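Pilot study result, target chain (527 residues):
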Amino acid sequence: MRMKKQTNPLKSYNSVEALNLVIEGDFSRETYQTVRNGASEKGAGTLYPSWKRIQEAKKRCSCKFKADVDSAETDTQDLFDQTANKIFDHLVEDDIKEKIQPTDTLVLEYKAGFDGSSGQQVFTHKPEHEQIEDGDNIVAKACTETLFLTAMVPLQLSVKASGQIIWRNQKPSSTRMCRPLRFKFVKETQDINIEEDEYLDSLQLEPTVLSLKTTEKNIETALSTLVVDDNNLHERKVDCHHAIKKTMTDGKVHTHLSKLTNSYRCCAICGAKPKEMNSLTTSLELAKKQTTNFEWGISIMHKWIKCMEFILHVAYRFSFKKFGSYTSEDKITMEKTKKRIRNELFAKLGILVDTPKQGGAGNSNAGNTGRRFLKHADEVAQILHPEFPAEVIHRLRIVMVAISCQQPLNCDKFENFCLETFELIRKEFPWYDVPQGVHVLLIHSHQVARELNLPLGMYSEEAQESSNKVVKKFRKFNIRRSSQIDGNFDLMRRLLNASDPELCTYERSKKPDTDLPDEVKNLLKGN
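Predicted structure:
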């Protein structure tokens, strides 16, 4: 007699797991219902919850917010309270919770920032905002082609007195915990950036009260603290304060907020002018005078792009070695060299540089392009010019990997390495002015690292930049188009759901850890 093969019973998705599946898989309601019906036909009707339960989960994974015709804004206190509670309840291990006492004070550190993105899809529904007359033309006040988003990312939860780390965000550059504060359809300008900076400064957040679930093992300890009442012996409370660093911004914002300069070619931290950046002595003198202006970080993701563009622009001029005052022959030579380098980089390494995107939204120079470019130092140097020094590319990559990793730097060693790299650049390319991005990287990055509490790599603005793509995708596929208010409501709820800390416990996609180069390990603390 043939024995029946034993099968494990199906474990059904709960509503939050199903919501995470919908977000990770970019499921629409119709797609989800099709998958659920297919499972039901195969005898697994209870595998997926109903769409109604997912809608209830969406409400639980969202905070209070209001949506208007051209904007949406969260209740910041409710958002920070929900974030702190969900991190503590779902991401902190139980054995660590048991060691926390009600007399402790916890601190949850965040990075925050803002950025504008153009190229947003314009829908054909009737405008609901006011219109103004501009001569013979009627112009809408709300511009739906550009969106300005302000967001924050939780980084680390720790005990204030002892510094004990309770929880740390292992993917601080991911959009999965990039939580929206507010957005509005407006073009990014200096006035808008200043207004948003003042908005972040004006946030007055009350401490969040976290619940400590006392187990049977430490009830005696809980009673000894004299804070547990007779009605609830199994629950204690602890305060959690919020600390925000405004590091998710780019170099343009730094220039707009700087009191030292309003030029993009000058340094927003020390005010150095283009010619002053060529002198190491002058740069160090100006850097030593500055004890502030480090609060914005150094825009790590954009520095990958700036380093790549610096190398490319030097290579385009390497045959005649001039920074300016080009002759007609120099211009022809530079265009031919540029075309040859672009073609060879794409043909041999699959790297596409300095190529405009369709629609006019920037070019192909992105953070990942810069990472791949600097990684292949020897191959890139041979493509650029047979005599191009690969050591410069290699050292710039070591600096970038060091500030991008999530480990604390040995600031003295790192400073020496940066200054040596600066001297090498001036030795190899004395005819080319040091650009502002490279100056900030080599002169000021060690200063910023000393001022910030956490490793420099955790303060990257990449999560903010990547959110621009997420917003475009959500607006295209996941919002109602019946009205602008409905669309903004759906967009804010989707952003809140996608960044909910509870959903991160069910995240499936994991990138393998990459080993750091030995040169980078020598620049870290403990080495």
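One observation from the pilot: The radius of gyration is 26 Å. A full batch analysis is planned for the follow-on phase.
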